[in-house]
Task: inverse folding
């Protein structure tokens, strides 16, 4: 149940700069922690987060173990036309998650 | 109480473990990134170019209640037009096991060069943000954070 | 990031507090006057407060969302969803979390919200109970708890619960563990002071389940109480143990009138 949570304004005006907020469930195990028996807990993180606005990439982030668990990333973009925002998370151990949100531009 | 140097702690703990067979109860403290690793990480991004202080605003809480999740906002002064925009923002730390925090790639479509996230800090330290502009220039800012610890935790 | 070294420093600091209290002849703990009670929220940094207040950035929202999905999911041999009996949770469960733990005639004693949800699961859905601290149980508890956000905690108006509130008070005021201190000695008598770099809160469970930064995850009040006991180097009670429920009940009674903050964010 690693459902992502995306937040965008319900309606935006053409040319308006608006904020997109994203949250996803992920432990972001850094790979530097050890069990009490001395075994290293292997790294398991989201390594890449990207957003496409009607197919064109508008944001991309490389994430490192220093990003907190349940990664929160917020950024801005200019409202160009109505359509779809597609979000992608990629990580260790084949982690891949996608979310799409419709955007209405007036 | 004086701060113990993590390397020394680990050596002492390992010796104790071998001698007393206490491996089951020892938690080895991971090494922290060296200043050279931080410089190398920055060089990896910046190359031989000069990095100037300014135009970048690093917004972090001065006192951190728990190093597991620290709010981070980086804002860069830029008109974000097709010919004058922020290409990338990189954030580095000083004392975590490895020096990178995040590397963000923007473009003129961003409208505003401002990103927010939450990151981890292993200890009180300095955080550095470097912005790469469309004209190839690099600008930076640093912030000092004090990290405190939570009480009554799960582990012993 | 966690390690054992910080907890050794913590232990030394707490030991110092014990000496101070012993030397100063610590008097019997007394209740915090009602008008002096404050939620731990008041002592958070502004960023942590913002994390709690804004659903769009609160990591606990991920569990609320999961809970919303589970609420409408059919389960068990009865093939029933919570929604089939309770309808729209935003209406039907408003105020519920604010008055839990509550007396259960079926159990002839108090039960907390987690136990109430599991009672429904076993009795009405004919589904196996959800494990304590499982993602599903936390999601449902948080989703239901969220519907009481902003409402005053209600406790003290059910006579049947009086002996259990007293049992909880006894647990709260008894010394425990190798540290040999009671909850009351810190949270009634020394709230607002610091132990190591941590501020001692009054310890009101206004926002459970909480997203605890230390856990890097969301967890229940019982999980937090077990952490408290481990902090005192005492053996914690098992999840679901009557002692845990009695403590939850006493703590909610102690916090009566304070506003529910679920899901809160705490260090």
Result:
């Amino acid at each position: 149940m690693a459902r992502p949570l995306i937040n965008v304004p319900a309606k935006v005006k053409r040319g308006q700069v608006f904020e997109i907020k994203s949250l996803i469930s992920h432990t972001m195990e850094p790979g530097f922690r050890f069990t009490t028996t001395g075994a290293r807990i292997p790294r398991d993180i989201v390594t890449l987060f990207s957003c496409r606005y009607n197919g064109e990439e508008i944001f991309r982030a490389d994430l490192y173990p220093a990003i907190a668990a349940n990664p929160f990333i917020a950024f801005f973009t200019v409202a160009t036309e109505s359509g779809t925002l597609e979000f992608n998370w990629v990580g260790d151990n084949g982690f891949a998650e996608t979310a799409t949100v419709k955007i209405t531009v007036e | 109480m004086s701060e113990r140097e993590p390397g020394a702690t680990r050596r002492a703990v390992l010796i104790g473990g071998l001698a007393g067979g206490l491996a089951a109860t020892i938690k080895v403290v991971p090494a922290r990134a060296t200043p050279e690793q931080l410089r190398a990480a920055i060089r990896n991004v910046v190359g031989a170019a000069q990095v100037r202080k300014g135009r970048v605003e690093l917004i972090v809480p001065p006192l951190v209640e728990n190093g597991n999740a620290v709010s981070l906002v980086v804002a860069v002064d830029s008109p974000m037009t097709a010919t004058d925009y922020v290409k990338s923002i990189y954030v580095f730390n000083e004392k975590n096991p490895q020096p990178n925090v995040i590397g963000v790639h923007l473009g003129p479509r961003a409208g505003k060069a401002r990103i927010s996230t939450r990151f981890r800090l292993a200890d009180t330290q300095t955080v550095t943000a470097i912005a790469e502009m469309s004209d190839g220039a690099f600008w930076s800012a640093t912030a000092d954070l004090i990290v405190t610890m939570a009480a009554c935790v799960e582990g012993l | 990031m966690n390690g054992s070294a910080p907890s050794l420093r913590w232990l030394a600091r707490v030991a110092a507090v014990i000496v101070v209290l012993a030397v100063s002849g610590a008097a019997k703990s007394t209740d915090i006057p009602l008008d002096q009670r404050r939620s731990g929220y008041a002592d958070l940094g502004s960023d942590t407060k913002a994390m709690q207040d804004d659903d769009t950035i609160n990591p606990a929202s991920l569990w609320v969302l999961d809970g919303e999905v589970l609420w409408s999911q059919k389960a068990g041999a009865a093939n029933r969803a919570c929604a089939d009996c309770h309808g729209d949770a935003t209406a039907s469960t408003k105020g519920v979390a604010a008055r839990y733990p509550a007396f259960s005639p079926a159990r002839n004693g108090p039960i907390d919200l987690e136990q109430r949800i599991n009672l429904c699961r076993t009795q009405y859905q004919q589904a196996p109970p959800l494990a304590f601290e499982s993602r599903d149980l936390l999601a449902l508890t948080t989703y239901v708890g969220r519907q009481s956000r902003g409402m005053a905690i209600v406790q003290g108006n059910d006579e049947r619960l009086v002996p259990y509130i007293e049992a909880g008070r006894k647990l709260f005021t008894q010394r425990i563990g190798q540290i040999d201190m009671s909850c009351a000695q810190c949270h009634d008598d020394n709230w607002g002071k610091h132990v190591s770099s941590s501020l001692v809160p009054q310890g009101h469970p206004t926002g459970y389940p909480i997203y605890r930064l230390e856990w890097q995850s969301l967890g229940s009040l019982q999980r937090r109480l077990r952490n408290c006991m481990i902090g005192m180097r005492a053996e914690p009670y098992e999840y679901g143990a009557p002692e845990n429920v009695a403590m939850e009940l006493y703590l909610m009674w102690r916090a009566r009138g304070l506003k529910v903050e679920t899901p809160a964010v705490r260090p």
Summary: Chain A has a mean pLDDT of 96.
